[in-house]
Amino acid sequence: MHIKIYFGDKPVFLCDDINTELNEILHHPDAVFVDEITNPAIKSLLHEIKKEEFHAGVLWNKDLEQLKKVFFKNFTLIEAAGGIVQNTKKELLFIYRLDKWDLPKGKIEKGEKPDEAALREVEEETGVTNLKLKKKIGETYHTYAAYGKHFLKITHWYYMTCPSAQKLVPQTEEDITALKWVPTREIKEPIANTYPSIKDILKFFFDEP
């Protein structure tokens, strides 16, 4: 089992098993493998990530939960939730923010459950109503720096549906400048200009039975 954390477009995997995918990554000359969960080892990896030639990192420990606990201590954690929204025409809803296509999501408020936050954020960011929550798809992880701190954002993703007849209203105060329903056959267009974590969760969504 593993989780993938993005530092920009560079992935770091925390795992308790080296599967075929990770084994292939480790054959890359600029991949970094760490099999101890000491603070010096993790600090060393975080330093390596800053190098332009860095390809990917793999941290292994037989206890994945303990590995996550030690690794996450290096960041301020933020939990968010969002939605993969499909209407009755089988179109998916995308938002355009900061020159990238994205999916609606936002920070989970105190006392709020992830699925409640996902529904609220989709409604606030897009104006879509009559949403029906179907199931959880998974989580994505990415890091960013702001205000002199390093953050790790964990986003919980949910599949939800809604009627096709909707008035879309972009939440401009959240830098959303456009909204678009995208037919499945045209999904490559927004995917060509989105974040790696969004590509991952959409791939997981489409690959699900």
Q: What is shown here, in short?
A:
The chain has helices at residues 20-26, 39-49, 64-72, 114-126, 188-191, 196-207; strands spanning 2-7, 10-15, 31-34, 56-60, 76-87, 91-97, 100-102, 105-107, 132-146, 149-162, 176-183. With 209 residues, the chain is of the alpha/beta class. The chain is elongated.
Key terms:
single chain; 209 residues; alpha/beta; Nucleoside Triphosphate Pyrophosphohydrolase; 2 domains; 8-stranded mixed beta sheet; 3-stranded antiparallel beta sheet; 6 helices; 27% helix; 40% strand; elongated
Question: How would you portray this structure in words?
Answer:
The chain is of the alpha/beta class and 209 residues long. The protein has two domains: 2-72, no CATH class; 77-207, Nucleoside Triphosphate Pyrophosphohydrolase (Alpha-Beta Complex). The protein contains six helices and eleven strands. The protein has helices spanning 20-26, 39-49, 64-72, 114-126, 188-191, 196-207, and strands at 2-7, 10-15, 31-34, 56-60, 76-87, 91-97, 100-102, 105-107, 132-146, 149-162, 176-183. Strands 3-4-2-1-9-10-5-8 form an eight-stranded mixed β-sheet, sandwiched between helices. The longest helix is centred in the middle third of the chain and has 13 residues, at 114-126. The radius of gyration is 18 Å and the shape is elongated. The two termini are 19 Å apart.
